[in-house]
Here is the input.
Amino acid sequence: SITASHYRKAHGAVLVFDLTRRETFDKLERWIEELRQQAGPETVVMLVGNKLDLVQQDESTRKVSFEEGSTFAQSYKSSYMETSAIQNTNVNAVSYTHLTLPTIYSVQISVVAVSLKKK
Here is the structure.
């Protein structure tokens, strides 16, 4: 759980999960609910599936389909994108999409990487 002060005044958030680790996707619902409770129900959320480079190298590593990610995002009235931080694929698009919110002059954005430590 992230402290309430991290969410305060945030108009938008980017929630990043690992396309190759299902458990990170499964945590998104809790993160969205917590975010909207702390920052407000009108907080704009973008969901990002990361590690697209690994999935492109070996499709069997994909644990969340594009369709599932997109459908989940739509159920929360959120946008969805897949990225590769290593290859810099769609990374700028994530920033651009969130920075063009109607309240650009006052938008504070939080980026949260949904992650679990491997044992």
Residues 28-39 form the longest helix (12 residues). The radius of gyration is 14 Å. Residues 99-119 have pLDDT under 50 and may be disordered. Residues 31 and 53 are 25 Å apart (CA to CA).
